[in-house]
Amino acid sequence: MANLISHDLSVHFVGRWSEELARALGVDNAALEEADVAIFLVSSKDGIVRADSDTWLTARELYIPSIVAITDLAAENETDFEDMSAIAGRILDPVVTPYLVLHLDDGTPIALIDLITLKIRDYSSGSLQIRESDHEHQEVISEFRDEYLEALEAAGEDAFENALLYPALPWIVGSEIGLIEIGEYLNRIPVIS
Predict the structure, then answer these.
(1) Are 186 and 180 in contact (CB under 8 A)?
(2) What is the pTM of this model?
């Protein structure tokens, strides 16, 4: 896969799967105090540990833009992406979900739906294919979409970059699902000369 980050960026990773995500993105794990952005990996299976929530508070004090990457989204887990995002939003700070996860009938995650464009980001073939969503999908996600758009409007245009809005994004370890979307958020961080 091509480099997902378009410019030199210092990223601090927190939580289980940090090394794997750093490797997948092609970056090193920087110290929090030197980071341009922080990624908090939150397991839908294990939840959030106290040390990670303490690091979250430090990142807030330093005004470091932060992403919550929800992992361990296997079909057999009881907690899904939406549930874990809500839990993270209560334990850390309120988060927004720019994408929702779409599953096969057996619960296997295969795609994301973009809440702004309503397009499906389908990974079922092993690589990203973007296609239009069905009316049925749009009806099911309409409340999530309304909440997301209201949060974006209330927070302002550069809220993520200014560490005022925290996206929760899914990441399926060992898969491209969520990886490209995390890279897109990282590319929003301005280059500081």
Answers:
(1) no
(2) 0.94
